[in-house]
Structure formats: C-alpha cells, structure tokens
Design brief:
Number of strands of chain A: 22
Shape of chain B: globular
Order of helices and strands of chain B: HHHHHHHHHHH
Low-confidence stretches of chain B: none
Largest interface: A-B, 27 and 20 residues
Number of helices of chain B: 11
CATH class of chain B: Mainly Alpha
CATH topology of chain B: MetI-like fold
Number of domains of chain B: 1
Largest sheet of chain B: none
Oligomer: heterodimer
Mean pLDDT of chain A: 92
C-alpha cells in the first residue's frame, strides 16, 4: 500500500506544480514578433453591439477608434472641445453648408490616399446603412474636390462637427471592403485577425501619418468576466485592461501597475418601460423608483468611490449638467407616500404592495459586462423592497434580445457615455425623443420632441445648453429615466506599459504612442 | 469461526454503528439547521447595510459581511435552506422516480422496457452538467429550474439500478413461491421487491447527496440557480468571486459550508453502504 500512497502524493505534487506554472505569465514585452502588447477588454463583444471594428455597424465604431484602427475628421480635447484630426480646418459657409479641408498626408491601411472622394464615399455609405448616423447628420449631399469636402445638410445642423467626431464617423476605405467586419482605416494599427467575442489582432501601420507606432503587434482579448480579467492581468496573460471591476482595484494599487483614471460622462441609468402592461406605465411607480434608489451609498460603497451620484442626464462641469436640473432625491418615506396615494398598498402584509390584484413587481433588466450594473440591481432591489416594490433582476448578456419584448422588462439599467460628442443633443436623439433609436421604452413627450427640434437648429452654445436643461427637466419630471451615477473611466496596465491613458470621451485608448518597455 | 474472528467482527460492527450514529447525527443536525434556518440567523440575511460593507470577521459578525453589508453567517445559514433542502428534495425525487421507472421496466413487456431504457441511455449519453446547463438555460434561472435540470439527467441511474435489481429478484425461488401462493403484481412489488432492492438504492441515494449538492452549487455558480438576493451557497460564491483576493471571507464562507456539508453526507453515505454490506455484518 505504501507505494500507492507515494504515487498519489507524487501525482498531487505534480498536479499542483503544473497548475502553478500554468498561472505564470507567458508574455514578454519583446519577443520574436517585436514589441507586443495584449489588452483585456470586458466590453468588446456582440452584446455591447461591438462585434467587430466596422464603424458602420451599430456601435462597432467604438472598437474601431478605441483600438487605433480608425480616426475621425475631428477629435475632442481633454475638455471635449473640437480639434482638427483628419480635417485640418472647416468653414461654415451658410446655415446648411460645411466646408472641410482634409490633411494631405494620410493614406488608408489599404494604400489608398485619403482624399475628398474617399471621405465622400465613406460618409455616403455610413448614412446609407447606419440609421443613427443618418438621423444625427441629416446630410443632403456631399461634394468632393481634391482635399476639400463640402457637406450640405437638409436642415441647419449646428452639431454636425460634433457628430462627425462620433466613432461611427471613422473614415475608412469603402473600396477595401468590410471583410467580416474588418475595415481599412487611417489609424496607427491594422487588423490582421479577428474572432468576434474572442480576440482582435493588430499590427503596426508602417505608413501611419502620425509617426511610426511603437508596438509591432497588439492583441485585444475579449474577457467579459471581471474576475477573469483581474486574474489575467495579475498572471501577465494581458498587460493592460479596460473594464476592470472596481472591487479588484486594490489588487493593482501598487508599484507594479498604473491606473489611469478620468471623470467621464459615462452614466449608470435606468430606462423606464411605458408599455401599458408595465407597472412603470404608472407615473407613481416611476416616481417611487426614482426616489427609492440610494445613489450616494451605491457610489461610496459599491463603486468604491470611483464615481459620483448623478442628478440629471449630464455630469457636473458642463454648461448643461450637474445640479442645474432638479431630480428626485433618495427619500424612502416620500416614495411610500407617493405609492400609497396612487393606491398601491400592502393588503396581504407580505411587504410588497398591490393594486387591483396586481403585485408591485418590477422586472429589472441589466447586463454583466459593466461589472457594477449587477451590483446596482441588487442595491436597488434592497432599497426598493423597503418601500414595498419587489425587484426581479434579470442580469443577462442577452439583454438586447430581451429588450425587444416590452413584456419582459420594466426597468432597463445600462451604462452609457451621455455626451460622447461633447454636445447634449446626442443623448436626446438616441434615447429620449419619440423617434430615438434606443427609445425601447416608447417614452413620448410632445414638448420634449418640440424642444429637440429647436435644439437641432440652434447654433448658439449658450442657448443650446439652456434648451438641453429644459429637456432634461422634462425627462426628470416624467421620471422616464432614473440617473444613478457617473463613473470614472479607468484603465489599468503593468508599470512597463506607457501612454495607456484614459480620455474624457472614453473611446481614445490606443494611439501611436502606446508603448511597452 | 474462531473466537478471535467473532470478536473482531463484533468490534467492527460496533465501530460502524458508532460511525453511523455520529454521521447520522451530524447530517440530521445539518438538515434540522437548514429547516429552522430562519430562527437561527443572528441577523436578517437580506438586510443591506452599506455602511458595514465588506467588514472583516468580528464578534458581531463572525464570518464578516458581504459587499452589501449583509451578515455572512446569517447568509450561510439561510443559504443552507436552499442548498441542503433543495438537494434532499432532488435526491428524493430522482431516487423515487428512477426506482419506479426501473421496477416498471423490469415488470413490463420487452418493448416498453427497451423504449424506457434507450431513453435513459440517451440521458446518460450527455455529459451531465453540460446537459443540465442546457436544460437550465432553456428554462431560465431559478432554483426550481436547476433542480428540474439535474433531475432530468440523474433519474436514469436509479432506473437502471432498480431494473437490474428487480430482474435479479424475479428469478429467485421465493418470488415464484409467492406467485404460486397467489400474490398479485403490486403485492409482489410492495412486499418482496421493494424491501429487497431498497438497500442498494438507499446507498446510491446517500452517496448522491454530496454529488447533487455540488452540481446544484455548480449550476448556481454559473448563474443558472438561485437568483439574487436569495442566499444559495453556489451563487454566493459566484457573486463574490471578485472579492476572493481582497476580502476572502466573503467567498470562503459559503465554500466552506459546501465543503463541510458534502463531506458529512459523503461520509454518511459511505457508512450506510458499509453498514448494509453483509460482509461487514456477518
């Protein structure tokens, strides 16, 4: 029997040794392929509408620009002000006409020169296939002449340049095709291989107009689970990470890692369902939900202070955000009174209110790739239960599918960059007006729609901000959305990774300067 | 048989009896604790107190608190209700249903026997947890669906066992004698077959409790079992795995509860098997 025990011991030791060696890092900064870097990302996946890097496909433009494949005509400064990028200057010749002059030294990774004709072809393709871009840009015609592009809009479009800076505005070579979501852009990196929901491999663009990129090879790995991402960064499987759970940050607050953090307009908010069968069709329920979420404690504890409580649609610090609008504060007693007054009472004593034989159960839909959204759901579940609302959480990566059926959700909690173009109009046209592309809750307010019409034609920034404030107040008074928190955008990397820096817009990540020592 | 052999046998039997009582008592204690868990929790397992979030174990909170400030000891105790009672329910269901199906197959005609056994083979052909995952994914999350998913893949084992045992019993002379004495089919099954095949089925069921508890926890860990905020050990571990490196007590507490419970039920199963083994009681 003794030899059997010895054999078992040897086997166990061997297994442990194998497991431990498997945990070791196998990536080095420099190997046969030159300088390489692997970034782990929780958000580069189909469920985030980012299945590939084709900017003309849903929200894949975010991946296109984020991973250095594409660039837009204008870019945003750290203060979200418009700056030249592929366009060096622009002129607003009349209310409907914009004239842009392009850089003369840019070629696509396909080898084609980026000129007016290529930009015209790209933008025409974009508005042909991308509904949101079509609604935003309102382009009537485009004319190209050498390095000049003249865009005419169907109506005055004050925010046109802001919209051209949206990731969908990445300028790509349409003639090079859209090979399963792979495109030829003008950025510092070129896609060599892609498997949706798994990885994206890029190599340096040797002919990049902005200087030679520092890395020879860059890999983006889709790692949806925050814990796996933390383990991958610790083991060296990836050397940089985006979308890490805040709970894992203590592991990386030391000399071995760098954390780049910046306040953004990325917001956790809940969208109410106005379907007649939804409990949220009742204004009192919506108001009670808005009053029943403890935002301050959520930010302080569950976000570990990596954000701040939201008031309205936009964060403080802009002319149209912060405390300039009035929103419901956390007030459980007030919420109980609102429900009581609306006839929602707990007749059977089980702690959950009823009305006309219907229990006050809220179907809360959310998704796990933004690591703290499930925490918001469970926090809301507890505080709303205190006021007599039962929350049934559905935390699923399949949220976009569930969202299509209005009977399957009452509140959809999501994360979104509210002003990715530095302008307030974007949020209203995407989420709130009756024709909005992401107004799945079918929220409608005629006054809001009318104000959006005014906003879309208004050139004066001060007046635009004023209109945006009025519109926010309408949305808040209708309790059509509940805004919970704004987040700090954070990216973590090994200490030897240079220039992996967060930007206020959230989608500038990989640049030619990104380096690894 | 020599006197020494008889004495050794007696000592072995007494030792087995002590083990049986000991593990039986422990398992009984666990079941009782899970049944009366709502009275045993020192704090409300559902009540959040974010001011106390992720507190380390202390005199007030022996196992610390989770990220919502909920007392972990209370969550683990409350979780036993879901984890242990669900497992017992599952094992009771699959053993009874599987046995009935097995006896039925052994007694019915060849065509029905073949049909049910091939159906059982189909279920057995799938990798267990993968099939359970698929079933749970189709039905959606929730403890009930997880139990159903595991039941769907686990009953054939009992059906096969009961069938083979019943077929063996059918051939024995006492069964023929009973038939000749005018005993009907139901009477034969109730009076002669069930008592004689109960031992192996009981042993299998006892040994299955630990396995089923692990599988149920596994499904919950993967998000197909209990939904928040219901405390269930597998989902508690899954929900808090981000905290394993920074606040390990939050993840380890339910893990330790699974470990202890599975061990107790496995040891009890082993002891029952030994106790029922005629070689040990000769």
């Amino acid at each position: 029997m003794k030899w059997k025990k010895l054999a078992a011991l040897a086997l166990s030791v061997g297994l442990c040794f194998g497991a431990l060696t498997g945990c070791g890092g196998n990536q080095t900064a420099r190997n046969a392929e030159g300088k390489v870097l692997t970034i782990g990302d929780t958000t580069f996946n189909s469920s985030n509408e980012e299945p590939d890097v084709n900017p003309h496909n849903a929200y894949a433009g975010w991946a296109c620009i984020r991973y250095g494949v594409g660039e837009t005509l204008i870019r945003y400064s750290d203060d979200m002000e418009i700056q030249p990028w592929l366009a060096v200057k622009w002129e607003h010749t009349d209310d409907l006409t914009w004239k842009l002059t392009l850089r003369d030294d840019v070629t696509f990774s396909s080898g084609r020169k980026m000129d007016g004709a290529a930009v015209k072809q790209c933008l025409e393709h974009l508005i042909g296939v991308h509904k949101r871009a079509r609604q935003d840009l309102k382009i009537a015609s485009i004319e190209a002449n050498g390095q000049e592009v003249t865009i005419k809009t169907t109506e005055p479009k004050p925010a046109l340049l802001n919209y051209l800076g949206d990731p969908y505005g990445c300028i790509i070579d349409v003639d090079a095709g859209f090979d399963n979501g792979i495109v030829a852009g003008t950025g510092p990196y070129v896609v060599t291989d892609m498997k949706p929901d798994d990885h994206l491999t890029l190599k340096k663009n040797e002919h990049y107009w902005g200087g030679t990129p520092k890395l020879d090879k860059l890999t983006i790995r889709t790692i949806t689970d925050g814990n796996t991402l933390a383990n991958a960064l610790q083991s060296g499987e990836v050397q940089a990470a985006y979308g890490m759970a805040y709970e894992s940050y203590p592991l990386f607050r030391n000399d071995k890692y760098r954390i780049s953090q910046i306040s953004t307009s990325r917001c956790f908010f809940g969208k109410m369902n106005f379907d007649p069968d939804s409990v949220c069709a009742d204004p009192a329920v919506r108001k009670a939900i808005s009053m029943g979420i403890d935002k301050e404690n959520f930010v302080a504890t569950l976000l570990d202070g990596n954000g701040y409580a939201a008031n309205g649609v936009f964060p403080a610090g802009s002319a149209f955000g912060g405390d300039k609008v009035k929103a419901e504060k956390y007030d459980p007693e007030g919420a109980k009174a609102v429900l009581e007054q609306a006839g929602w009472a707990d007749a059977d004593g089980d702690g959950i209110r009823e009305k006309d034989g219907r229990k006050l159960v809220v179907k809360w839909l959310t998704y796990p790739s933004r690591q703290e959204l499930p925490l918001l759901a469970e926090s809301a579940q507890s505080t709303l239960k205190d006021i007599g609302i039962e929350v049934d959480v559905n935390n699923t990566a399949d949220h976009n599918q569930v969202l299509k059926d209005p009977k399957k959700w009452d509140v959809y909690a999501m994360a979104n960059v509210q002003a990715p173009t530095g302008d307030p109009e974007y949020w209203f046209t995407v989420f709130a007006v009756s024709t909005a592309t992401k107004n799945q809750g079918k929220y409608q307010n005629a006054k809001l729609d009318a104000l959006e019409q005014q906003l879309s034609l208004e050139f004066d920034p001060a007046r635009r901000a004023e209109l945006a404030l009025q519109m926010q107040q309408i949305v808040l008074d209708d309790h059509a959305f509940v805004f919970c928190s704004f987040l700090k955008m954070s990216m973590i990397s090994k200490a030897n990774v240079k220039n992996y820096t967060s930007h206020a817009c959230d989608y500038y990540q990989v640049t030619a300067d990104l380096d690894v020592e | 048989m020599s006197e020494v052999t008889v004495r050794v046998q007696k000592v072995r039997t007494a030792s087995l009896k002590r083990k049986l009582i000991f593990f039986g008592a422990l398992a009984g204690l666990l079941v009782a604790a899970s049944f009366f868990s709502s009275y045993l929790c020192p704090w409300d397992p559902y009540e959040q107190n974010l001011a106390l979030a992720k507190a380390a174990p202390s005199a007030d909170h022996l196992l610390g608190t989770d990220r919502y400030g909920r007392d972990m000891l209370s969550r683990v105790i409350a979780g036993s209700y879901t984890s242990i009672l669900s497992t017992l329910l599952l094992v009771a269901f699959i053993s009874v249903f599987g046995s009935i199906a097995g006896i039925f197959c052994a007694w019915s005609g060849k065509r029905l026997d073949t049909l049910v056994m091939r159906l059982a083979d189909m279920f057995l052909a799938f990798p267990g947890l993968v099939f359970a995952l698929a079933v749970a994914a189709v039905l959606g999350g929730g403890v009930q669906n997880a139990i159903f998913a595991l039941a769907a893949i686990s009953w054939p084992k009992y059906a096969r066992l009961a069938r083979s045992q019943t077929l063996a019993q059918q051939e024995l002379p006492y069964m023929q004698a009973a038939r000749m004495a005018g005993c009907g089919t139901l009477g034969l099954i109730r009076r002669h077959v069930v008592p004689n095949i109960a031992g192996p089925i009981l042993v299998t069921a006892m040994l299955d409790i630990g396995t089923m508890m692990m599988e149920l926890a596994g499904l919950s860990f993967l998000g197909l079992g209990a939904k928040p905020p219901i405390p269930e050990w597998g989902s508690m571990m899954s929900d808090t795995r981000n905290l394993l490196a920074t606040h390990p007590w939050v993840t380890l507490a339910p893990g330790f509860a699974i470990f202890v419970s599975v061990m107790i039920f496995n040891l009890l199963g082993d002891t029952v098997r030994d106790w029922l083994d005629p070689k040990n009681r000769r």
